[in-house]
Amino acid sequence: MISNTAPMPPADPTLEATVDDLMPQAPAPGGQGAPQVDSQRVPDVVELQPHECVELMALAEELTVSPTEAPELFCRAAHRAARRLPDRLAEVLTDFAYHGSHTGTLLLDRLPLLEPPPTPPDNRSHLAENTQLARAQAIINHACGQMVAYEAEGHGRLYQDMVPNRAMALSQTSLGSGVELELHTEQAFSKLRPDVLSLACLRGHPAAKTFVLPAHVLLEHMTPFERKLLRRDLWTTGVDGSFKLGGHEFKEGDVRGPLAIIDGAEDDPTIVFDQDLMSGVTEEAGAMIARVVDIYRAERFSVTLEPGQILLVDNLRAVHGRSPFTPNFDGSDRFISRSFAIRDLVRTRYARPANSRTIAAEFS
Ligand SMILES: O=C(O)CCC(=O)C(=O)O
Ligand SMILES: [Fe+2]
Hints:
Layout: E1 45-47, H1 50-62, H2 71-82, H3 87-99, E2 105-109, H4 132-144, E3 146-147, E4 149-150, E5 160-162, E6 181-184, E7 196-203, E8 210-214, H5 215-220, H6 224-230, E9 235-238, E10 255-259, E11 262-265, E12 268-271, E13 278-280, H7 283-299, E14 301-303, E15 310-314, E16 318-322, E17 335-342, E18 358-359
Parallel strand pairs: 1-2, 4-18
Antiparallel strand pairs: 2-15, 3-17, 5-17, 6-16, 7-15, 7-17, 8-14, 8-16, 9-10, 9-13, 11-12
The protein binds 2-oxoglutaric acid (AKG) and fe (ii) ion (FE2).
């Protein structure tokens, strides 16, 4: 029984749902110490219980390997730690990793947070990875899959300091702020895209909303004809700007596809989309891009990340974006520890030289 088969809440196009709206009505599985999990009621928000916080942070404390100096050892240690997570948490994360959630996200709330370092002006100082929250994030990630780094993006690190950067303010990258970050699948262009996008909030900004639209909600608002069209290979997509900053060449070139926007089971659809970089190969396909964006604007829900929260985005079943916000560029700005998990490490082996944790740029 998978969570996607549970009845959906009625869609109201006049409302942009918040995470609060999406809180489960029933008590969280195992909340009263019961180890049994009813996978039909997997919560999209997991409020960590005090004992779960204590256990998670104790595991994070033991994770002393450097993710930069020894990425493989770090990931192995995080993976071992993930096996020792409290039962309810491990079960909820595994369920999310394999079956998704109604909202295409899972928000872990109320992790303890020590005062983070001042927000750096760019992603070159790699500060997030040394915080306790990021270590806890690695353990959470490894309960959902395996962390990997991408050589071509974010200096090839397991963790990226996601901060507003003045020079990139108007860019369609995670370092932007002054314009809406348009709707996308993370790495829509790449077949080695992550399965889970993991965002741990060290500092928030009240205007920075992470928007998410699950594929099933999109399809509920499409006609049967449009649903069929979306499953045909009718779109090409360019390579993300953030992967081009290092001047890398890609084996598969700079334009990918044609590919389908929707794939997977009728009752558990997957999605690949990029508002900025996709084009239709026919006029009809081109018009569908605007159609998807219109539905996204009406039906998306938003999360305003707060310090101590970790947002997991299902990069197969949901697409995401972010509102614009106004940074101060004074060390107090939004600061997110960004990382990625994939479920099947073996599938990416050809792209990871010497079985390292890094997907070589040419294979992205
Ligand atoms: O800033 C955010 O909340 C999301 C940005 C984004 O698209 C990402 O991290 O992949
Ligand atoms: Fe993204």
